[in-house]
Structures are given as structure tokens and as C-alpha cells.
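Worked Example 4.2. Read the sequence first, then its C-alpha cells.
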Amino acid sequence: MSSFQAQLSSAIRAARLAGDYLQNSFASEKLVDARTAHDIKLRMDKECQSIIRDALAKDWPDYSLLGEEGGSGGRIEWIVDPLDGSVNYFYGIPLFCVSIALRVDGVAQLGCVYAPMTGELYTALRGETAFLNGKPIRVSSRDLMQQAVVFIGHGAHDGSGEEGIRRFAHLSSRVCKIRILGSAALTLCYVAAGKMDVYVENCIHLWDFAAAQVILESAGGQFEFSPCEEDPLTGAVIAWNGHLPLHSALNFS
């Protein structure tokens, strides 16, 4: 039995607090702190990270916090994405989530992902059962690519666009469906719950996947991360149900 059940309970409370704030503010005007050609940074991101940080610090004042909106790492650290799916949130698309993991000596020990608009709470302790709203979940048993529902990312601002689009085109006629949800953590949880089968992305950050990785692996899925040389917190991700011949399917010239 994991020794991190109390920490998971704290993560759930913090995620629900931030999620309720996001849900209550969903119809309000959104303040933009920064905008690029393909991304938006909202004031809400910082406000939610503050909510999470304060809630976790009440229970675990000696832990550090590393998140999308800053923070510093340590031996025991919370890894937080306060609003995964900011563009969805800004445009009124109800596919976004709060993501919280606890990492100890570089290994994530728990994951909590909360999607407030759908009421979905995904949780797991490393090496134990993964849950959706308290009910156990497992990855799908699909083993044929033509049956698979696949997420293929093709970022336009991070240098991965051209290769991602080629991969998208390569797989689109070989799988059942391709979906892009706009939230990495939520997509990985969908793979964990058997709703989707594959997630492939060339450029993703630690806080985008840390919690969902624990949930996916606890649900029987496979996860591979290849960090960038210049930034070990960023890199390429391949995640799937463990049954599909994914590596061979991704080979193309």
C-alpha cells in the first residue's frame, strides 16, 4: 500500500478548489496576460496556481511546487498545471482540467486530474489502481490500429509542426479516428480509461503530463518520454494502451 494517500487527498481538495473557481468563472470575461500566434496565457492560470499552492501548503508546508506558472523544484515537489487547456477555456470549450502530481526524488508518486465541467476526477497512486470518480479504470484491450482512436499533436510554434502533420497524415487512414482535444492531461486520462488508445506529441512539458502519466501507467498503459537536450522538462511523448503495435505504425518515410 502506498504511503502517499494523505498527499493524494490534499491534491484532490486543491484540484477541486481550483476547478470550482474555473467552472464558476467559465462564462465570465477572460483576462489575457500574453498571446502568441498559437497559444494564450490567461490571468486565470496564475490565479488557479495560487489557489492550489495555498491549499497544498496548508497541509504540506515543506514541499516545493513546480508549475506552468513558475515555482521552484525540490526533493519533494508538487508538479502543477493549474489550467491545462487554456485556449479551450478562453474560447468557451468545456474541455480543460486541473493537473496535480507529487514527485519525490524525481519519481511521480501520485496523480490527480480534475475536469470540472464534466465532473471527472482521475486519480492514482503509483503502482496501485487508477480511478475515475472512485471507480477503477483500465486501458482498452484494442490491438489493431484500424480500431484505435488516436491523438496526434502537431504544434505550430515549437518546431514540431511539419513532422507532426506528416505523422497525422500517415496515420489518419490507418486508424479508426484521430482526435485533438486541446488538453494533454485530459487526453492521457482518456487513454487510461479506455476512451482513446494513443497519445503522440513532439513537444510537451512536465506539468502537462506528470499527473496523467501516473494515472495511465496505473491503468495498464505504456508511457515514453524523450526529453530535449536543452530543456529536460520538455520533450516528446508516446503513450498508448500497451496492446497496439504503435512503434511500427509510427515508422514512415
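Now turn to a second chain, presented in exactly the same format:
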Amino acid sequence: MSDRDTETTAVLLIAHGSRRPEANADLHELAARLAAEGLRPIVEACFLELAEPDIPAGGAACVARGAAKVLMIPYFLSAGVHLLRDLTAARDELSATHPGVEFVLGSPLGPHRLLDELVAARVEELGRGVGAVRDSPEDAATLFRPMGG
């Protein structure tokens, strides 16, 4: 891939979306970290439902920033109905709305060796008393405090 291709290729991270703003913030923070790494100059976060920006707005933001190609990265664990039906439909709609821009929908996060490693790490952390969900979801400040803490 040439430098020019990299400069015009965007990353569009797509999560389901949540009514909890804190949950949606995770994707925005991931987008900021990826942008800071500089592998692609255009990194946007968007959501299938329940949160903004939605997928059409996220795709439009990539195009407005100069993307000629958009890598649509599902922040989904498996190839369920949202990925196979909803995200493919969103890709097709973006392609129709933005002719001349290539939209490429990627695979879900799993199954993948790195996800297996992450799950194993979480098992070990929880076994050591780190990362247990405590209290009610309404108390976001205590949602992921370490066990015994």
C-alpha cells in the first residue's frame, strides 16, 4: 500500500451502542487511541443504534475528512444478525450515498487467537479478585472496582 493509499483510507469503528454513555465512551476512547497511533489519519467511531453518531453519520464524517476508502471495523464478538444483516446493509447504503468511495466491511473480533488470550487474561484477573462487577449498573463509578475494594 502506498503512502497515498494510507492517507486516504479511513477506519470506521462500529459498535452496537448503549443507553449508557459510559459504555459508548469506550469506543470513542478506542478511536482516539488508534488515531494517536497514526496508522490511519482518519479514525471515526459510530453506533448501530441507541447512540450517536450512527453509521451513516460516521461514514459521512470519514468521507468529509477525505477518505477514498473506509475500513468498517465491527466492534462485535461474532458474525450474528447485526453484522450479517444490518452492517452489510449499512455498507451498501454508504456505498450508494458516497459513490467513488470504497466501503469495506471487516470480520467480527472473534473468533481470534488474540481474543482467546484476552479472555484467558480476564479469567486470571477475576481469579485474583480484580475486575468483578459490583453494585448496580446505575452506579457507574463502582461498576468495575476490584473485588474486595
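Notes for the reader: Residues 144-149 have pLDDT under 50 and may be disordered. The CA atoms of residues 17 and 47 lie 5 Å apart.
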